[in-house]
Recover the amino acids of this structure.
């Protein structure tokens, strides 16, 4: 139905499927949302603004003792950065059949649930198309619906996709930056993907279990984690384990 010739019906089907896919991934407590959390931290020259409420007792004591308050006695407010940022790369080269679309949609939903503050979804073949940039707000169901609208196109430039992921994650403030590559990683155009893969802080590859050889070779060359998946629910299970 998501590929129906009736445009309105296809869009409605994708949105409904997006909600269902998100429900499948929502196991456990959602991760923290927002660009960061405002917290009180020990004061330092670069720690942010003085937290007057938290520092009040020390300020009063210093006033009574007729001395300046020491920096180590004071508290400041600062932003705690998000724990994890994720960039999902969806290989759209070749055909995008029902199994591949469902796998990609589930992967996008897991990423939105695991890292709601900062996640990106990019589709690639011989070029890269952004479905969601890492610093752009977009409803998860809209992201999933757009993934379900993908059509197979072009050859496979893995290096280009990995470089695009690096650029997305460079814009993140998160402590952990994870790239998830949903692909058999067979290069049919473009350059060697190994340098781009090695430049990433953390790479996880989800490879089809019937064509894992290229993905295994890439993972071995750069120390990436890899899981061989056989369909949508094995993608879901693998991500629940790998994206912790």
């Amino acid at each position: 139905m998501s590929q129906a010739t009736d445009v309105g019906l296809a869009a409605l089907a994708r949105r409904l499927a997006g909600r269902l896919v998100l429900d499948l991934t929502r196991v456990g407590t959602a991760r923290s949302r927002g660009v960061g959390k405002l917290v009180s931290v020990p004061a330092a020259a670069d720690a942010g603004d003085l937290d007057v409420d938290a520092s009040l007792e020390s300020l009063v004591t210093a006033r009574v003792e007729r001395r300046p308050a020491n920096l180590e006695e004071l508290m400041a407010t600062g932003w705690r950065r998000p724990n994890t940022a994720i960039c999902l790369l969806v290989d759209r080269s070749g055909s995008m059949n029902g199994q591949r679309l469902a796998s990609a949609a589930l992967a996008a939903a897991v990423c939105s649930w695991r890292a709601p503050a900062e996640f990106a979804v990019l589709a690639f073949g011989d070029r890269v198309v952004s479905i969601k940039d890492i610093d752009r707000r977009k409803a998860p169901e809209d992201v999933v619906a757009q993934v379900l609208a993908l059509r197979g196109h072009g050859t496979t430039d893995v290096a280009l996709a990995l470089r695009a992921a690096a650029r997305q994650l460079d814009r993140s403030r998160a402590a952990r930056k994870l790239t998830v590559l949903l692909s058999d990683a067979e290069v049919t155009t473009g350059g060697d993907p190994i340098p781009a893969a090695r430049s990433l802080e953390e790479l996880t590859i989800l490879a089809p279990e019937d064509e894992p050889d290229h993905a295994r070779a890439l993972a071995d060359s750069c120390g990436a984690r890899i899981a061989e998946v056989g369909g949508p629910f094995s993608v879901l299970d693998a991500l629940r384990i790998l994206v912790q």
Observations:
- The CA atoms of residues 123 and 129 lie 5 Å apart.
